[in-house]
Amino acid sequence: MTELFPHGLPFMKMHGAGNDFVVIDSRGRGAVVTAALARAVGDRNRGVGFDQLAEIRDSAEADFALDFWNSDGSRAGACGNATRCVSDYMMGQLARDAVELVTQRGRLLARRLPDGRVSVNMGHPQRDWQEIPLAAPQDTAHLPLPGTPVAVGMGNPHCVFFVADAEAVDLPAEGPVYEHHALFPERTNVEFASLLGPDRLRMRVWERGAGITLACGSGACATAVAAAERGLTGRKVEIVVDGGMLEIDWRDDGVWMAGPVARVFDGILRPDFLSGLL
Ligand SMILES: N[C@@H](CCC[C@H](N)C(=O)O)C(=O)O
């Protein structure tokens, strides 16, 4: 397929609160991203580097469709921050302040706020063990693991631990243990959260397929849902992540997440780099 790109493959580099993305706009030509391409572009030394790669595709049912890849080449069913970043780009393209998109999760709605942040409805949280998924029937609000974390699905799996001090957690040691724990047949994202004040949480994340990232939008949504269910907070919270702040509002129509978006630079993946990857 490399011959389709004699002048290379254009991409955009974006981030939402420091969660960074390579975005490839494949509208009008069909999907091109492979696991091998995602791994190669995701390499921070030999490629571009990203936490997730997002590919925009045409959709018959919404303004566009979006697929997500982690930097290890695995697919993800949801990526809240990339959804906000790409929606901002698409709102610019369509000269609108709201867009509808389709992900593996289903139809999502995104809006630009008056202050320039972008808000997306990430849908209803998944609380059933099969939807998350877990390997066997469990009380998803109290998993049988040290610290009794909460399992929440947001179109992707999350395991949320509430701890006294999220800063004190040894994330590189703890994260991979739970990412690969047998309770999670599709692996999981792992969040450690502590209460900073009324309706304000600190969250650090170890992402499935990407490791430590500066922010995880779906993880912030999962943490807010878990905190509200545990009675630690109300349903509208601020989540302080390493890369900034995300505002989560768990409403009757779904979990809304608002935060900053940035398009940093555009580039072209050269034909010789692409050789054998498409
Ligand atoms: N950074 C994301 C989540 C990306 C996907 C995740 N690593 C997975 O494999 O589920 C976000 O902003 O939601």
UniProtKB/TrEMBL annotation:
Substrate binds at residues 19, 52, 70, 80-81, 156, 189, 207-208, 217-218. It comes from the Bacteria. The active site is at 79 (proton donor), 79, 216 (proton acceptor). Its main location: cytoplasm. The keyword Cytoplasm applies. The keyword Repeat does not apply. One of its GO terms (cellular component) is cytosol. Keywords: Amino-acid biosynthesis, Cytoplasm, Isomerase, Lysine biosynthesis. It is found in: Cytoplasm. The record marks 158, 207 as: Could be important to modulate the pK values of the two catalytic cysteine residues. InterPro entries: DAP_epimerase_AS, DAP_epimerase_DapF. It is an enzyme of class 5 (isomerase). Pfam families: DAP_epimerase. Pathway: Amino-acid biosynthesis; L-lysine biosynthesis via DAP pathway; DL-2,6-diaminopimelate from LL-2,6-diaminopimelate: step 1/1. Its EC number is 5.1.1.7. SUPFAM superfamilies: Diaminopimelate epimerase-like (SSF54506). One of its GO terms (biological process) is lysine biosynthetic process via diaminopimelate. It catalyses: (2S,6S)-2,6-diaminopimelate = meso-2,6-diaminopimelate. Catalyzes the stereoinversion of LL-2,6-diaminopimelate (L,L-DAP) to meso-diaminopimelate (meso-DAP), a precursor of L-lysine and an essential component of the bacterial peptidoglycan. Homodimer. Belongs to the diaminopimelate epimerase family. HAMAP family: DAP_epimerase. This is Diaminopimelate epimerase. It comes from Gemmobacter lutimaris. The gene is dapF.
